[in-house]
Amino acid sequence: MSDGPVRLRAVIADDSVLLRDGVVRLLQDAGIEVVAAVGDGDALVAAVGATVPDIALVDVRMPPTHTDEGIRAAVEIRRSHPTVAVLVLSQYVEERYASDLLSGDTSGVGYLLKDRVVDVDDFVAAVRRVAAGGSAVDAEVVRQLIGRTSRELDRLTPRELDVLELMAEGLSNTGIAERLVVSLGAVEKHISNVFTKLGLDPETSAHRRVLAVLTYLAERA
Amino acid sequence: MSRVVEDGMSDTGAVNTPRSETRPSTSWREAIDRWYRPLIVAESWLALGYLAVGALWAVAMVTVVAVMASITFGLVFVVVGLFLIVPTFALVNAMVGVERSRAGWVGEPIAPRPLRVPPDGSWFRSIPATLTDPERWRQVAFIVVYVIAAPLLFTLALTPWIILLGLFFGIAFDVTSADLVGIAVGLALAGAAPRITVAIAGVTRSFVAWFLGPDPTSALQDRVDELAEQRTVILDAVDAERRRIERNLHDGVQQQLVALGIDIGRARSRLDEDPAGARQLLDDALTKVRGAVGELRVIGRGLHPAVLDDRGLDAALSSIVGSASIPISVEVVLDTGLPDDAAATAYYVVNESVANILKHANARTATVRVGESPGPSGARAIRISVSDDGRGGADAARGTGLAGIRARVEGADGTLQVESPPGGPTTLVAVLPIQQLPQPLPPPSGVT
Prior knowledge:
A: 10 helices, globular, B: about 450 residues, 5-stranded mixed β-sheet
């Protein structure tokens, strides 16, 4: 379909065959090449080493212990192959996992609830964004962090809160404008207000902005 | 007239009304029969024997203790005596053990009172432990007290018999009018004497039980420890069960639903350009819906089957084996219905056992039986047996399934036995006591 000059190459790790096949087809529909699909963390690290894809999609719970194999594999991949983007898919929001993963450079890192796969277009957009060095943090994670810091955020208007959430999710200004159906100028104004109210340095790069916002939220939490 | 005379002759002191002529005589006979019955009942004479032998045994025990003690003391100074300390106490233990089991003559045998420090076989190393064990000295104290108490109690029991004999011989050879009182006393005493004997034997047995029997407080303490341990096991089992359910939901149903969502999402995005492909994806989605619904049904049934409430254990067990891939026969023979908790436990045991068989045993056929079984203290209990002709080698220490069954059964105060030699066959037997009084369940908040 979208045979652009750069055809994304992805590796998928998920022990549920049903789901793995679904995601593979989904990505193929979107013109993303799936170079390997595996069922556990060790196989994932090996596959990444062998194929060096643009992005690895990783399920958190995989054999043998069904706990956090995926997170450990993701951290390992970030360390051994910094050029490979990692998008972690989780059954539920676990802040500890999120902070493990996002505690460094958030470029090329994503953490999404598995259910997001169902919103095919948004999901594919997130995959592309992370693969291109951006980030994708699940709205649920952001909402939990914001929920715990509500007092500090009282000063923000509802619209500014929306913008903060979407920023933390990793969206660019354009992405935020599209999602909220407002003009780019309006988004930029909201962002500048948010950063001023929270006392943060305005950043231009989307993923550094994510880091700043997440760090702010985590520190206040 | 003649009829009345006849009646008067056959019925001592009967009133002359025809209606009541036989009644007083029957109750008189019954009363006399009842009063003198203890004389011919083995129980009475066994009680007398118990007291007599008790007195003799007490003397024997005290003699042995005295002899052993003096030998031991005498030889302590040439070291040899030290080696006799432990055997002496062992002998004391054995002798009071005889007295305990003798209690079976007049009631239940007395359960042993546990020694503080159990013997470890070495006659030398055990000396300090033996000498400092208060339970050992309690046994010695018993013998010392019993050698006085037992003859006294026996004498007390014997006294009415001696009076009776004295009256009998005194009157038999020379009856005077003054002896009428003696006869009356004798007649009364003949019924009373065996009763007195039995009562004194009962008192003696209680005395022995107090000295040598288990401490009721420590029995309660043991029970508390046991219950505390069971509680931990149950809480662990509940926790493991919740994790299992969570995993079944997340890894099973949720994955299926997400995969289903992907199909629908893909179908929607190609609806215009590729309707045939979209239709195919929707067909796939339908298949996944059926799979997810089926899986939910299995999970729900594993939690608590509606059929158990609606149609009872028999039907619920039949539904378990009905969906199994091998033929499994079910036989439920119960006198009356079961309380809900017992039925649920029985269901759980069978459900997990059958799941184990299907998963691991490689069996061709299996049998499930549920029936009545007398419990440990005569209370009602049910016996659940599940056997298969599979490869055996089931081990509760390894399989989480068996451990879960064990926790559930022991949590219900039941017992579980598993026989599973390598190569099979495997038989699992759970015996569950039925609580007569429904135990209120703790509120669910206590579990979390």
